[in-house]
Amino acid sequence: MASFLGIDVGTSGTKVILMAEDGRILCSRSSGYDVDMPRNGWAEQHPDIWWKGTLEAIQGVLADPSCDKNDIKALGLTGQMHGLVALDKAGTVIRPALLWCDQRTAKQCDEITETVGAERLIKLTSNPALTGFTSPKILWVRENEPENYKKFAAVMLPKDYIRYKLTGDNAGDVSDASGTGLLNVAGRAWSQEVLDKLDINKDWLGKLYESCEVTGTVSGEAAAATGLPKGLPVVAGAGDNAAAAIGTGVARDGSAFVTIGSSGVVFAHATSMTTDPKGRVHTFCSAVPGEWHIMGVILSAGMSLQWFRNNATGGATYAVLDAEAEKSPVGCNRLIFLPYLNGERTPHKDPDSRGVFFGLSSMHTRGDLARAVMEGVSYALKDSLDIINEMGVTVATMTACGGGGGSPFWRKMLADVFGVAVNTVQSQEGPALGAAILAGVGAGTYPSVPEACDILIKSGNDIKPDLAATRAYAGYHRLYKELYGALAGSYKKLAAL
Fold this sequence. Notes:
Elements: E1 3-9, E2 13-20, E3 25-32, E4 44-45, H1 47-62, E5 72-79, E6 85-87, E7 97-98, H2 106-116, H3 118-125, H4 134-144, H5 146-149, E8 154-156, H6 158-167, E9 171-173, H7 174-177, E10 183-184, E11 189-190, H8 192-198, E12 207-209, E13 214-217, H9 220-226, E14 233-239, H10 240-247, E15 255-260, E16 264-270, E17 282-285, E18 292-298, H11 302-312, H12 318-326, E19 336-338, E20 356-358, H13 366-390, E21 397-401, H14 402-405, H15 408-418, E22 421-423, H16 431-442, H17 449-456, H18 467-496
Parallel strand pairs: 1-5, 5-14, 9-12, 15-21, 21-22
Antiparallel strand pairs: 1-2, 2-3, 4-7, 6-8, 10-11, 13-14, 15-16, 16-18, 17-18, 19-20
């Protein structure tokens, strides 16, 4: 039976899975690594550790008894978005990659906005300039490391560096490129106007493909290093969230997913292109050719509950916190939590905002506080869903994934807060599975990306919203939204102290 590799170049490690043609995960291997933080707010990794991790994980899969490498028909790539990988003319990495979570580029974001124009930038790229994006990172190197900048001959994203090591090609896909700040998202091509205004050389950027297209084949050198067959097709793949959408079956209008990992994401598929003129959510190219997705991102989702657990519970398990929170009523006895522990991205774009318990009294229990944290994260995610709905994109079904999505209690809360049925999928491989599915489409095994999802993705039972609870949550959500407006000026004053 044919099989396909999915390679996920993550922030904490690289995962490689082997998927059979019928969707079974034959084996999975991971190799971990660390993030370097040379200064407060900086985050870097040397791309060589991604390649080392990829080699270890691939070799682990190939050594598994379930793997017959002669059955492998293609591989697909996914991974962390936005990172800056810069190579010189010899193909050598110039400096460690600046990662998606690196926050050093606020000044460069302001420069981009002023140079291109705020409205024009959103019109061209469908997004404002954000510190996580790749374009301000390029400007930062130009302004702060001119000797390194002079060496630039190629710029690529993290997963595309692994493609380069596998095939020798500088290439990428439109979903991942959407997060650079350099792509005309509507036209699915590099924006020459933005490149000209920012004085960035288009020749540095890779050739763009749709996510299920073949970009090259495994070279002889890479075959010797990895053990993969020489000439194995390498499919474009997608950024991690776009690949996760495919791995959860979100590939048609009306479908969406919510992730509660360290950060939180609400992601909705859209056949038609639509942009939020205020830039509160992202419009990116989808892994489905010719289509798009809309995505809101909050910075402290599962991280908020982890912070509470680690610092205020004496190490209680998440199962215990779920049970205690479930005893607290909707609204947590009039207690609201703002989950802005590390600033916020959607919808406020405010790095100075911070977490708040509002309404705390002596009658509140640990269960009330735990539930307030979960409700606050759910309200923050609802902010994204509300904006998506404002844009004319209707969400009929929602799939929950990530660590928080594994909690039946939290899934029920999400269904009630959103007013939308929430389900799960049987496989938890996420982006790596999406990359393997895209490889299967690229190899011609499945007729299209949506049809591959129909065949391969198996959903669990829906949790339907309780309309009475939805109405009750709506009142608390309105007050939740008022609190940010009341505190926005105070956040700035606090940051200046």
